[in-house]
């Protein structure tokens, strides 16, 4: 019993930490984004036709994109401190209709460096820190004084530094690019609120299906992860062929996945009795591979926009290497996909969770607490998706 209690104490803080990362208020990040999107910007045609008096940094993103929100503060500082050298403008693609077509935006965030005649000098897809933006202007031949206060070790551990370095590293030497692709794949799950919600989902799915072996749990977790990945790739191809932002199917997929998360969450939390819910109609009650794949496919439909935010550096590089080094580009994408799936598989098949599932029966207090905790996280995940779909 002591062993079980220690496992419960180890599992619940992890899930609590997951909830903190997933739903922690954005605070200053949110207010910075609201400020940058409320400012008046010139029409894209005016920027491209050279009607501006200075060079311009054009940024395109969406509110549901974590890297876009993290860049908002840096962009405000660039507007305040470097406006005499270049203009900085931010376009939210949902507030400025047609911006993706006019600027040929494939993914967000995207930064476009333009001279005062409106000619494109450089384009970057993915997160880019203030320091790297200024270094890019300097590399393009502009007299830019780079003043970025250093905070020592904290700078190297900050998400801003990690985002920016990984975005640039995938364009570096082969070994560096492969390592960056692997780390980026893991972060695409950890730092994406949508994907974090899929972790308690697979844990709750395996727990509810009474999986009896470690191998079976691993296979189901893998099928779930592959279902998500396959659907994301298909959505990406369809939206690319349709000329839309990669992964953007509008708000409908968000509502679909939010409903699935709410159904499973209410069921796991014990708020909706099993015989009243639609869960078993969506996914077979037995621990079948088809059920895990189907669940992954459904979740993958709504994860497209979230995922492509983090896949931007990888896909941008892969597309740019399509003609010259296609094999290497696909290799990087494969490494990203492997790391992307690995965390979900580990969550559903880790020894601690498996011991919990295999040793504790459904009626034990610990198992009940775990199920309800996962249920609450899924409910919060569903509410989160509804909020961003509005």
Automatic annotation (TrEMBL):
Q: What is its main location?
A: membrane
Give compartment(s): Membrane
Q: Which residues form the Cytochrome C biogenesis protein transmembrane domain?
A: 177-352
The annotated topology with respect to the bilayer is: Multi-pass membrane protein
The entry's keywords: Cytochrome c-type biogenesis, Membrane, Transmembrane, Transmembrane helix
> Which part of the chain is the Thioredoxin-like fold domain?
53-134
Organism (species): Desulfonatronospira thiodismutans ASO3-1
* Family recorded in the similarity comment: Belongs to the DsbD family.
Tell me which GO cellular component terms the UniProt record holds.
membrane
Q: Could you provide one GO biological process annotation from this protein's UniProt record?
A: cytochrome complex assembly
Q: Which residues cross the membrane?
A: 181-206, 218-242, 254-279, 291-315, 327-357, 369-389
User: Which domain of life does the protein's organism represent?
Assistant: Bacteria
Pfam families assigned:
DsbD_TM, Thioredoxin_2
What is the name of the protein in this document? Cytochrome c biogenesis protein transmembrane region
């Amino acid at each position: 019993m002591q062993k079980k209690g220690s496992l419960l104490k180890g599992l619940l803080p992890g899930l609590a930490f997951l909830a903190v990362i997933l739903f922690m208020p954005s605070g200053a990040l949110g207010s910075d984004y609201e400020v940058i999107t409320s400012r008046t910007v010139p029409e894209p045609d005016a920027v491209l036709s050279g009607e501006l008096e200075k060079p311009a940094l054009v940024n395109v993103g969406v509110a549901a994109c974590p890297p876009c929100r993290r860049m908002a503060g840096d962009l405000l500082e660039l507007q305040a401190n470097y406006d005499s050298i270049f203009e900085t403008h931010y376009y939210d693609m949902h507030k400025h209709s047609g911006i993706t077509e006019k600027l040929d935006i494939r993914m967000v965030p995207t930064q476009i460096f333009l001279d005062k005649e409106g000619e494109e000098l450089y384009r970057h897809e993915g997160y880019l820190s203030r320091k790297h933006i200024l270094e890019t202007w300097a590399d393009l031949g502009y007299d830019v004084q780079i003043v970025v206060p250093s905070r020592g070790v904290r700078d190297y551990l900050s998400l801003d530094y990690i985002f920016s370095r990984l975005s640039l590293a995938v364009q570096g030497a082969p070994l560096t690019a492969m390592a960056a692709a692997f780390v980026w794949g893991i972060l695409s799950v950890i730092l994406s609120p949508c994907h974090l919600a899929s972790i308690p989902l697979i844990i709750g799915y395996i727990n509810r299906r009474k999986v009896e072996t470690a191998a079976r749990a691993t296979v189901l977790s893998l099928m779930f992860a592959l279902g998500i990945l396959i659907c994301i790739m298909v959505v990406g191809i369809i939206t690319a062929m349709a000329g839309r932002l990669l992964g953007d199917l509008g708000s409908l997929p968000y509502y679909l996945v939010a409903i699935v998360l709410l159904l499973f969450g209410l069921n796991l939390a014990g708020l909706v009795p099993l015989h009243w819910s639609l869960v078993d109609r969506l996914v077979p009650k037995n621990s079948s591979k088809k059920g895990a794949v189907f669940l992954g496919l459904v979740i993958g439909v709504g994860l497209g926009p979230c995922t492509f935010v983090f896949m931007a550096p990888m896909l941008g590089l892969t597309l740019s290497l399509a003609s010259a080094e296609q094999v290497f580009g696909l290799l990087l994408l494969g490494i990203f996909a492997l790391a992307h799936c690995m965390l979900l598989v580990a969550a559903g098949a880790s020894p601690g969770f498996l011991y919990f599932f295999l040793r504790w029966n459904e009626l034990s207090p610990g198992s009940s607490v775990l199920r309800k905790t996962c249920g609450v996280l899924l409910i919060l995940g569903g509410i989160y998706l509804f909020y961003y779909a509005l």
